[in-house]
Amino acid sequence: LMDQILRDELRHVRHGLRWVRHWQSDDEDLFSAWERLLKRSGEEVRGLNGREFGLWADDADRQRFLDQLSESGRDVSMEAELLDGRGRKVLCRVSARLASIGSERLLLMALEDIREQHRAEEEIRQLNTQLEQRVADRTAELSLANAELARNLETLTCTQQQLVQAEKLAA
Fold first, then answer.
1. Going by DSSP bridges, is the β-strand pair 17-20/89-101 parallel, antiparallel, or unpaired?
2. How many CB atoms lie within 10 A of CB 139?
3. Spatial separation of the C-alpha atoms in residues 104 and 101, rounded to whole Å
4. Residue 37 is inside which H or E element, if any?
5. Is 10 exposed, middle or buried (0-12, 13-18, 19+ CB in 10 A)?
6. Under 8 Å CB-to-CB from 103, ≥6 apart: which residues?
7. pLDDT tens digits, one per residue of 10-57
8. What DSSP state is assigned to residue 56?
9. How does pLDDT run across 72-95, given as a tens digit for each residue?
């Protein structure tokens, strides 16, 4: 029954990587995501908190997470760098939800690797900057061409007026 209740609650957590600290289940699917993203086995993390197994790259992020959880009383979502089992930083969106099952309070966490998303966003920012520069350059070129055309038109208009004046004097 506990497994089914937790599975139902986990469906409401937004991201695919989920960790339940005290869940005594044989559901290997649950921990395979940890192994892929954080290079840690379920056995390594089961029963430990994030500080105990070195999840947070920066303790200030951990504290910010706990503060937000305390303030919201239920749901938190934030970006933070976490450490994988090899000590490498992994930029993640950390989402958490407090849940109660009977008298037991649970913290359900979901992690999403957002490194690729951040790379794509940075690439879009760079492309936008390049496009804005190209537009500015082209606008400057067109302004110069417009100014040249205006000068040429003025010269032609002046020449035309002189020709008309010369024809009137000749007649």
1. unpaired
2. 10
3. 5
4. helix 28-38
5. middle
6. none
7. 454 444 444 444 444 444 455 566 678 888 877 777 777 778 888 899
8. B
9. 877 889 999 999 988 999 999 988
